[in-house]
Amino acid sequence: MKSTKYAKVGEVPRKWLLVDAEGATLGRLATQVAMMLRGKHKPQFTPNTDTGDFVVVINADKVKLSGNKAEKKQYWRYSGYLGGLKLESFQHAMEKHPERVIEYAVKGMLPKTRLGRQQFGKLKVYAGSEHPHAAQNPQKIELEA
């Protein structure tokens, strides 16, 4: 009788991956980064265990959107009070904090559980091409088009 092998917390080796967001489409970049954070690119993927890798995204300020979404896309948050709706356009968000745009897109693609929050903690996003994770020797990953 064959049995399925499930990955345990300390068994799966973690790698550091480097993704260059220059010229990438936001949604396509976010889906692939979320997949790497969850570990779905590995043969020993287990849905209830964090088998993913650390992902460093550089050049977040050079990400783009397709079509006319760059003018129309808005991020919103609501305080719960009357008149408490705050809107921010994509262009304003990219000027102010381009890292958060990618973080927000990836976070929406991860599970809304403790495991998802743990996986999101392995994402490091930087606006420029410099990052402080050179000691971890991240492997450069080419994104699928």
**What is the percentage of strand-forming residues?**
15-25%
How is the main sheet built? 4 strands, parallel
CATH architecture of one domain: Alpha-Beta Complex
Helix percent band: 25-40%
Principal-axis shape equals globular
Query: Which class do the helix and strand fractions yield?
Result: alpha/beta
CA-CA gap between termini: 41 Å
Mean pLDDT value: 94
Question: In the CATH hierarchy, what is the class of one domain?
Answer: Alpha Beta
Fourth-level CATH superfamily of one domain: Ribosomal protein L13
Strand order of the largest sheet: 5-2-1-6
> Cα-atom Rg, whole angstroms?
17 Å
Low-confidence stretches: none
CATH topology assignment of one domain: Ribosomal Protein L13p, Chain: A
> How are helices and strands ordered from N to C?
EHEHEEHHHEE
The helix count comes to 5
Number of strands: 6
Please characterize this protein's 3D structure:
With 145 residues, the chain is of the alpha/beta class. It has a domain at 16-65 and 97-141: Alpha-Beta Complex (Ribosomal Protein L13p, Chain: A). It contains 5 helices and 6 strands, in the order βαβαββαααββ. The strands form 2 sheets. It has a 4-stranded parallel sheet, covered by helices on one side. Strand 3 and strand 4 (85-89) form a beta hairpin. The chain is globular and about 60 Å long. The model has no long low-confidence stretch (mean pLDDT 94).
Annotation keywords:
4-stranded parallel sheet; 5 helices; Ribosomal Protein L13p, Chain: A; 18% strand; two-stranded antiparallel ribbon; 145 residues; alpha/beta
